Every structure is written in structure tokens, then in C-alpha cells.
């Protein structure tokens, strides 16, 4: 029962950015360029949820709060959800379904190209986020879901190349991502060393 209500609470909290954006739209507080505000807000939250998802494992291990793992999949799906909103804003509101122009933009503008790569990498993660997929794929599921690292990297690059001048936010995201990736590398190296230590440990002979 507690787990279920916990997931409901996390679900509601994850919808707050969208609710805030809708409230601003209804109240007419999106400014002179509402499309740009919506595009940036949904893009920001896509990257934030990717980083939050990646942060679950290190925070869980460092704080020994192992219950946090229950919400990682939901957080990852919300990253995909806001990524879909970000993409749909560009397709529907900005480009009005002008697919030839969109294809030209993807080929011509490198920040759009890498943004599309970031989104494409999230698709197989979202499609295999069910318990059934986890059971069916086994170890392959873990390997596939390492794509989240590459999606996050591409997302940060996309944002960095987009803003050009004020890189404060993308730089902050890049530093957070670098820290998370460094933790994973150190953790992987430690786990690789542990079997070697066990193998080289001298045996204690009873007297």
C-alpha cells in the first residue's frame, strides 16, 4: 500500500512542471514568444528528468536509501514524456507539420540533429520499460538501458549548441552529468577490482 501511494505521489510531483506551464499559458504569462518558452521549458525538464534518473543509483548507494530504485523507471518515463512534448511543440506549434522544412533543419542545424539523436535513443528505453520486457530480455535489458547515458550526453550537447551565448544552464547540466558518469566509472572499476582482490587474498591455514 505504501509503495503504491509513494508512486502516486511521485507521479503527481512529476506533472507539476507541466501543470505550471499550462497555468502560465492560461494566465497569459508566456511572454512575447510563447512557443520558445514552451520549447525551452519542455526541453529543460527532459534533461532534468534524465539526470534525476541517472542520479537515483548513486544517491541510493551513497545514502543506503534502497527504496529509491522503485521510482527510477517512472522518472525515466517522465524524461521521455517531456521529450515527446518538446518534440511535438517543434513539430506542431513551431513548424506546423512542414516536414520538408523539418528535414532540412535536421540536416542543416547540428543542434537539431543531435537533439533528434537524443530523443531517438530514448524510444527503445521507453518501449522496454515494462516488467514483461525486463523478464524477457534478461541481461540484454541492462545493456540496452545504458543508452540513457548517450541520450543524456546528446541532450546536453543539443542544449549547449542551441543557446550559444548564455551557457550557464547547459554547463551546469554538463557538470552534473560528468559527475554522474565519473561515479559510474569509479563504481565499475571498484567492482572489477573486487574479484581480483578475493583471488589474490592469501588463504588462512588452520594450525
Kindly summarize this structure in a few lines:
This protein has 9 helices and no strands. It is mostly helical.
Describe this entry's structure for a reader.
With 207 residues, this protein is an all-alpha fold. The protein has one domain. It is 82% helix and 0% strand. It is built from 9 helices and no strands. The protein starts with a helix and ends in a 7-residue tail after the last helix. The C terminus is likely disordered.
Q: Tell me the radius of gyration.
A: 21 Å
The mean pLDDT is 90
Number of helices: 9
- Shape assignment: globular
Q: Which spans of ≥5 residues are poorly predicted at pLDDT below 50?
A: 203-207
Number of structural units classed as domains? 1
Report the sheet with the most strands, covering strand number, pairing sense and barrel closure: none
Order of helices and strands: HHHHHHHHH
- Helical residues, percent: over 70%
Structural class: mainly alpha
What fraction of the residues are assigned to beta strands by DSSP? Answer: under 5%
Quantity of strands, as a count: 0
C-alpha end-to-end distance: 55 Å
Supply database-style keywords.
single chain; disordered C terminus; mainly alpha; globular; 207 residues
Topology of this structure?
Blueprint (H helix, E strand, L loop, with lengths): L1 H25 L7 H30 L8 H23 L4 H10 L1 H18 L3 H7 L1 H6 L2 H17 L4 H33 L7
Helix pairs in contact: 1-2, 1-3, 2-3, 2-8, 2-9, 3-5, 4-5, 5-8, 8-9
